[in-house]
Every structure is written in C-alpha cells, then in structure tokens.
C-alpha cells in the first residue's frame, strides 16, 4: 500500500504526475486518486458554494457520491447562498453537506471585539469566523479539497494539483487549477447545475454579504471582495 501523503512527509513523497490534456483538465483524475488514496475519513471538501464549488461538487459526486462537504457558515452570508445550499442538498441527497459555524456567535463577537468587526479589523473577523473553524474541521483529516484556479488571481497562479498547506499543516488538493472562467460556466450550463443567482448580478466571487460587492468591467474576478480594504484573501489560502 502506498504511503499516505501527509503534511509531515509531503517533501519525501515522489511528485505526482496528472495529465490535464483531457475533458476535465485533470480534475476527475485528481479526484479519483484523492478518494482512493485518502478515503472518506481523511479527506474533506471545504466549499464556498461559488460557481467553482458547484462544478467541483458535481465532479466529486461522480467519484464519491457520499463525500463529506463542509460550508463555513459565518452567519453573514447572502440569503441566496443559503438557498443554493438547499438546492444542492436536494440535487445530491447522498452527499454529506455540513454547515460549520464559529464558536462565537455574532453577538458574542460584537461584545468582545466591537460591532461590525469586519469593518474595523476584517482579518480578525475572517480568523474568527473562517480560519479557526476550518482548522477545527481539518484537525481530524490528512487532506482537504479546494476549488482554487490559477486564473483567479496573482496569489493563486502557482497553485498545484497537490499542495503542502502550511496554514493548516495539511495537504490541499486543487483539481480545478487549469480551468478558466469560461470552462467553469460552460460545464455548469452543459450539465444544468444550480448556481448562486448573484453571479448573474455582477458577483463573480461571493463571500460574506458584509464584505462582497458587485464587480463591473474588471478583469479581476476577486476585486469585489473586501473593497477598499488592503486585503485579497480571507486567510484560508496563504
């Protein structure tokens, strides 16, 4: 049996070679390997339920129809996002979809750190409501899946299929790295996938409603996140 690839032994494992000259640009091959190598107990998909997430969920369902998917519920998401999650649960009833909330309620957070922390200290807000909860989720697993694409931003353009994740001391697997924005939407429409209606109203990247704005006439798909702040990531992907 092949040695399980973990954060601790990542650098000693021979590089994995996945071809991306196929219909899913390597995504299905990577997913098949991931679930075969780690099994359900050591692998989780942390999904934001943006359009990339919906595509990845559909691909995952073809490989493992009972896969575990976690949504970091900051309690600050758009109503449209929660509606979409219900639609996905209905479409893929066998997938295990969990909504993971922070230990601190919004009221407790306001009492400790002040009202509207996302305005005064967005990094702290993301840490409390996303980073710490995901760290808790990943504490019992060896690897996690992410929908990152190289095209999304400068900070993501060197992402590999299999990555050593220093933030969470885990292995981060990114099957969609070679997909373009057009590839994502072509697949979604071809397969009649549900998606967040906010994508049709100028929101290419959708996070918390307090920190996400529509984007018009911009080549940066993430420019609507934390507008006016010196911030481009929530802290999960660093």
From TrEMBL:
Cofactor note: Binds 1 [4Fe-4S] cluster per subunit.
CDD domains given in the database record: PAPS_reductase
Pathway info: Sulfur metabolism; hydrogen sulfide biosynthesis; sulfite from sulfate
Domain Phosphoadenosine phosphosulphate reductase: 42-214
Coiled coil: none
EC annotation from Swiss-Prot or TrEMBL: 1.8.4.10
One Pfam family recorded for the sequence: PAPS_reduct
A GO CC annotation given for this chain: cytoplasm
UniProt-annotated catalytic positions: 234 (nucleophile)
Cofactor(s) the record lists: [4Fe-4S] cluster
Catalyzed chemical reaction(s): [thioredoxin]-disulfide + sulfite + AMP + 2 H(+) = adenosine 5'-phosphosulfate + [thioredoxin]-dithiol
Main function: Catalyzes the formation of sulfite from adenosine 5'-phosphosulfate (APS) using thioredoxin as an electron donor.
HAMAP family: CysH
Family named by the database record: Belongs to the PAPS reductase family. CysH subfamily.
Protein name per its UniProtKB record: Adenosine 5'-phosphosulfate reductase
Organism: Bacillus canaveralius
